[in-house]
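Worked Example 4.2. Consider the chain below.
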Amino acid sequence: MRKIKPPFKINDRLLLAAFAGFIAALAANLSLYLINQAIIGQNVNMPQVTLGIFLNNEVTNSLLIKVLGVIWSTIVGGVYSLLYLVALELTGWNNLWLKAIIVVNGTWLLGAGFMMNLLNITNYTRDEPLSIAAFYIAHMLFATYLYLLVDNFGQQYKNNKDDLNLKTIKILQQDTRNRNRYGKTIKPKKIK
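Applying the procedure from the previous section yields the following structure tokens:
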């Protein structure tokens, strides 16, 4: 399968995080909404539930709460994306999809699983295992969308750790020897 060339590349990591996080969050939120429509019975749309961090009232199905949930989802998506790009810069730009899954789901488990439980937020959602499973699937989809966007629109820096492997170092040493042989570089003087 041939890879389609994107119309532009984004060099700035913050802009790439904002762009990829926003688009991936919108796509994952739409996917979650469609998954929740397939769940029989009462379900909870988790991005709206996490507004309980800021709001005192129970989550309702009002249009305002749905809009705020989408906005909150895109903000969190940008944070996930930024963490993902930091992880890529630290560990290299290989295995992008696996790293997206690790960063997104690890952060989600820490944030939703630990912090919201510690702060005693949204206890009533623990009775909705299908909604929680749908939210997990939405995070897997978000990680996939994020991987696809960063892979297509992101640009790896040339001095990344991936480029500094043993084979590259041997080639650089050989190039230096060849340049010295042909007189293109000046040999350093020995200090007495």
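The first helix runs from residue 13 to 38. DSSP finds six helices and no strands in the chain. Compare this with Example 4.1 before moving on.
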